[in-house]
Structure to design on (310 residues):
């Protein structure tokens, strides 16, 4: 099938094409899904190199499961978000268990908000605050407020009820607000209220 | 977004917007590695068997409607053969022949009997 014709096809159909030996379908899925997977992995991990490793592993699992994929089962993105979260949680648990002291401290000499784009500084500040949240709160907040998913889909990804999702996001946002409140002036947040 | 979300989102939304605008991008090398993984997995996975073209007799069998139709046809054919072989003797055995013989062209029989040919 021509590569251009795949632009309108759903992920699930492309995965079936890949399982049937269509290499172009794999390239289309790679271009479409890898940036999302990478972005999500980075938000859960806060580390670019680790996020790349998780992304490659998650996509590898997708290629391997393709022959068994049933189109009516679930959305590919839902499955991927779940795999990414599990890989990230495993990675963070191993890192905590093996060597807490080896986790790098936040850099002291980082550039101030005046020296870099304010927006990028806000993204960085949010990432730092997200890194301090418990895994499940971070996952729920990222899925809801950055990835923009609806609560029922998040509940499916996290395998919990929608009420539990609401509870996790509410607690996560309270913690984020507390963490970021001290940096409002530095990040120009006060100007926009 | 639900009202409860909006109530306490006024402060955080600007950070979430910034995070969306500054998503981590996969490197070109990562994209290439993922493509290579896909090719490697595809090479290891046997291609699904292609559907084979059915034989002529199978196509005819399907065209007729499968086993119910073929069974009906076979039964009808056997009944026809049986009737063709056994009916004349069976029907005429011990009965008055005239009750069963109908002369559809009596004039022709007369002409033949009269030797007018």
């Amino acid at each position: 099938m021509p590569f251009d014709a795949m632009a309108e096809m759903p992920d699930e159909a492309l995965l079936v094409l890949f399982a049937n030996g269509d290499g172009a379908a794999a390239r289309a899925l790679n271009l479409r899904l890898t940036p999302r997977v990478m972005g999500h992995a980075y938000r859960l991990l806060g580390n670019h190199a680790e996020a790349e490793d998780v992304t490659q592993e998650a996509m590898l699992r997708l290629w391997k499961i393709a022959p068994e994929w049933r189109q009516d089962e679930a959305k590919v993105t839902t499955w991927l978000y779940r795999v990414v979260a599990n890989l990230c949680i495993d990675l963070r648990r191993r890192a905590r268990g093996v060597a807490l002291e080896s986790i790098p401290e936040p850099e002291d000499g980082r550039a101030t908000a005046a020296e870099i784009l304010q927006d990028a500084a806000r993204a960085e500040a949010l990432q730092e605050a997200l890194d301090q949240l418990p895994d499940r709160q971070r996952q729920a907040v990222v899925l809801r407020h950055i990835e923009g998913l609806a609560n029922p889909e998040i509940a499916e990804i996290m395998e919990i009820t929608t009420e539990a999702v609401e509870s996790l996001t509410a607690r996560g946002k309270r913690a984020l607000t507390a963490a970021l409140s001290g940096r409002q002036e530095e990040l120009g947040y006060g100007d926009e209220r | 977004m639900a009202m409860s979300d909006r109530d306490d989102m006024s402060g955080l939304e600007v950070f979430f917007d910034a995070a969306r605008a500054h998503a981590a991008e996969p490197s070109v090398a990562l994209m290439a590695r993922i493509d290579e993984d896909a090719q490697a997995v595809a090479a290891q996975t046997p291609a699904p068997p292609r559907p084979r073209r059915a034989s002529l007799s199978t196509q005819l069998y399907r065209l007729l409607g499968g086993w119910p139709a073929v069974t009906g046809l076979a039964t009808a054919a056997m009944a026809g053969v049986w009737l063709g072989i056994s009916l004349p003797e069976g029907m005429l055995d011990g009965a008055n022949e005239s009750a069963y013989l109908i002369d559809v062209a009596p004039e022709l029989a007369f002409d033949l009997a009269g030797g007018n040919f």
